[in-house]
Design brief:
Shape of chain B: elongated
Oligomer: heterodimer
Helix content of chain A: 55-70%
Strand content of chain B: under 5%
Number of helices of chain B: 3
Order of helices and strands of chain B: HHH
Order of helices and strands of chain A: HHHHHHHHHHHHHHHHHH
Largest sheet of chain A: none
Number of strands of chain A: 0
Chain lengths: 419, 94
């Protein structure tokens, strides 16, 4: 059987201006929705270990599962060629496990994953400004000290795969062929259990809350069921917050006027939509998934140094062989910051916040360094590798998720000792 | 409402924030026009094509960024104007 093609195909014929614009729109929505929904991968995971709440973690699993199902469906329907789904699949190896664990630990200590760091920084959280600076320093440390060794192991297949692309694509790994049937079955095998587990965990958490809160009957039950996941006690049935008729219009108006935060599952739905937008718009042109850290941790430092006559891409490891000088994720991250700022400003959340405990600033900075080292070692962050890889129908996302959970668990233990 | 209470409601950081955003996006565009193109040319001159980005892509980036900059500046100035009027109202009623 011939090997699957490695020639990407354009889905839309509008050229690079459209591709960059689509990434910009996607970034704006990502920042806006994540800010309004207070969407944080690290908080979702740490709440599993601190408050035993699986509500937000369940939403993450729904996000991963629905992304896999929807991208898989687009390939099955022939809207997007399979090659555009697997073309950019990364290598897999020791570095994903080690990097994700370091990232999970550092992000929990610093107080935000790569997504929440940016929208909180744009909302005025000084600790997250320092986390961002620390991440740039961490990326440089990785580039000089770790990347030469890591790239050697990758090139020689030491605890690492060495091909990527379709060899990391579950339809090919499971069925040794890339057909619409194999993609559909693989997407279902990956996506449906994740969505089912996510819904189950959310229902379990909400039922537990109801029992603990004594909300077993009467009007309180209806109030709890109507509430979004992020607004305190919630009902047993996860919803996106737009069910019903009269209540829906009132809810929608409150959400549009920024008087209420978005519910977790509504945010999940919109975030999955942003991924689909770039998946279609960027197909055949560029890495058609969401990416954050290549820009904010890598290119931003490179850009800051350019006016001083320093060009890292000319001689520094990693910067000179792994990081294109610009790509659509740059515009995506810039617009993410703009979107998050406008959402926080218009909703009245914006405020420059300096932590009362000054040591939080130092923890934010040092946590940021670990985040920078971790995400680069893992070849991506919670968005650009973990979430993206589920949509790519790969298996690196599963490795990243488990290792990150371990890192978060260790950080929670350490934080308990520090407090 | 007392003057002290009114003074507490006016946040100059909040007033300045949209202008900071406008300066950020305008500065980013100017930076991209000058330095990113220059750095890309340096990559060609030094023969490093691994991270070089074709001119067509850079032009696409700059065109999309220009549109995004116009939108962000318009939004930033609108919210700045809104809050400025609010500040004047608060101060005149005190």
């Amino acid at each position: 059987m011939p090997a699957p093609t490695m020639l990407p195909e354009h889905v839309l014929p509008f050229g690079y201006v459209f591709v960059y614009a689509a990434f910009g729109v996607s970034g704006f929505l990502l920042g806006w929705v994540a800010q309004r929904g207070n969407y944080c991968f690290v908080n979702a995971m740490s709440s599993v270990f601190t408050t035993r709440s699986y509500d937000r973690f369940g939403a993450l699993l729904i996000l991963f599962g629905s992304s896999a199902l929807m991208t898989g469906l687009l390939v099955v329907l022939g809207v997007v060629p399979a090659v555009d789904q697997y073309y950019d699949n990364y290598f897999s190896g020791w570095y994903i496990v080690v990097g994700a664990a370091i990232f999970g630990f550092g992000a929990t200590m610093a107080g935000g994953c790569n997504l929440s760091m940016l929208y909180r920084a744009a909302s005025g959280y000084v600790q997250n400004w320092l986390e961002l600076v620390g991440m740039m320093v961490g990326t440089y440390v990785f580039a000089v000290l770790i990347w030469p060794f890591q790239s050697y192991t990758m090139a020689n297949g030491i605890l690492s795969t060495s091909l990527g692309a379709y060899t990391e694509y579950l339809p090919y790994d499971l069925f040794h062929s890339v057909t619409q049937a194999s993609v559909g079955i693989a997407a279902s095998l990956l996506g449906i259990p994740l969505v089912a587990l996510g819904v189950f965990l959310q229902r379990r958490t909400r039922s537990k809350r109801l029992i603990e809160g004594g909300l077993s009957s009467g009007p309180a039950l209806h109030v709890a069921m109507a509430a979004p996941a992020s607004a305190g006690p919630a009902g047993p049935i996860p919803s996106i917050g737009l069910k019903g008729t009269r209540v829906d219009f009132a809810n929608a108006k409150e959400l549009l006027l920024l008087r209420r935060p978005y519910g977790t599952n509504l945010s999940t739905l919109i975030l999955a939509g942003t991924l689909l937008l770039v998946f279609v718009a960027g197909a055949g042109y560029t890495f058609n998934y969401l990416v954050i850290t290549s820009s904010d941790g890598g290119r931003f430092l490179e850009y800051i140094l350019m006016p001083f006559g320093v060009n890292l891409s000319l001689g520094t490891p990693w910067y000179n062989d792994a990081l294109p000088i610009v790509d659509p994720s740059v515009l995506m991250v810039v617009m993410l910051i703009v979107g998050a700022f406008l959402a926080s400003y218009l909703s009245g959340d914006f405020k420059v916040r300096v932590p009362r405990q000054r040591k939080r600033l130092a923890i934010g900075f040092s946590g940021g360094i670990l985040v920078g080292i971790g995400v680069r070692t893992a070849l991506g962050c919670n968005v650009g590798l973990m979430w993206t890889n589920f949509a790519q129908l790969g298996y690196d996302g599963i490795l990243f998720l488990l290792a990150m959970l371990f890192g978060v668990w260790v950080a929670v233990k350490v934080q308990r000792r520090l407090v | 409402m007392s003057t002290q209470q009114n003074a507490q409601r006016v946040s100059y950081a909040r007033l300045a924030a949209p202008i900071v955003m406008v300066l950020f996006v305008v500065g980013w565009y100017q930076f991209s026009v000058v330095f990113i193109q220059q750095a890309d040319n340096q990559l060609v001159a030094s023969g490093n094509l691994a991270v070089y980005v074709p001119v067509q892509q850079v032009q696409g980036y700059l065109a999309a960024l220009l549109d995004a900059t116009y939108l962000a500046v318009a939004a930033g100035l609108a919210v700045f104007g809104y809050y400025l009027v609010k500040v004047f109202r608060i101060r005149s009623s005190s």
